[in-house]
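User: Run a structure prediction on this.
Assistant: Running it now.
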Amino acid sequence: MNKVVLAYSGGLDTSIIAKWLQETYNCEVVTFTADIGQGEEVEPARLKAVAMGIKEIYIEDLREEFARDFVFPMFRANAIYEGEYLLGTSIARPLISKRLVEIAQAVGADAISHGATGKGNDQVRFELNAYAINADIQIIAPWREWDLSSRESLMSYAKEHNIEVEYKKQSKKSPYSMDANLLHISYEGDLLEDPWKEPEDDMWRWTVSPEEAPDNAEYLELSYEKGDITAINGNSLSPAQIMEELNQLAGAHGIGRLDIVENRFVGMKSRGCYETPAGTVMLKAHRAIESLTLDREAAHLKDELMPKYAKLIYNGFWFAPEREMMQAAIDASQENVTGTVRVKLYKGNVSIVGRKSNKSLFSEKIATFEDDDGAYNQKDAEGFIKLNALRLRLKSLQ
């Protein structure tokens, strides 16, 4: 093994992995740090990598690619896992995997490596997506190989190998395992391992408590073109800017908190908490504009496909042919999903209070309870009902 590309955050775990790879495989380590909107400085990772003797360091701003090519296509599908989870961690892994493989090919590396544990979903997502891009890629997963099984053992390893740890900050560090990007921030571990215990209010980073949210509602107008938000209150923004703005606006009103027990792909149940302010608004608003512009049967077919689509993303099959086939169908359905949705943000809730489109299938003339001037012949319903009742009537005669 000559060279390995490591997905590197600059934190304790991946810093230890960098040193462990050097020692265990006697190889050169290349670090890759992705900025996908986690809200933290990524440049310190460069300094830490340099201090460890890393010669090739990649730090990339992938926020726009993440929003445009991964999050927005997923929201065209209204994807949600097990009825609640908006797939914030899941959708980030394909992009990171793709860049790991591309960098490995560019620098002539023998393998890639990641810091996901052997208990979680991320190991599966990183590796399935990597293999989909390069069938021959070698992958090193230290958590499945080494004997460092606790935080104490990691700290001892760091001390033994002179790996810099910000000891002064350890006492102030969140006790939770967290993952953040433009779409969400997740929390696992510590008291959350008991599904009966309520999360501490100071755990949440992006949203105020709904009880402490403003007493006045805020209204937003979201402009859609072919299923994607393109502007907020008339201001055209890029996909990443859309998400950043919605995170700020919705988070200020306590929107997007979630506490769930989910079924991991590896078989166990896991309790996690999530903050997804932008995603919560995006899902609600997208379904609203679709309700106006999408044919009934197309909408119902999308709803039937969605659980399978969401499960594929959750389990790490973004680059699988079946997901790509479904995406083509979903994207085709969005051709006329264009217009404006007005949303109301208030104390943890998103309400749809208006929608309009020049592609609308809604006909006030036909739907009205007033005189429709012959637009709809109510007598036609009699034959419709009798035809649909035929099998039921025959069954009743048995």
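DSSP finds 13 helices and 14 strands in the chain.
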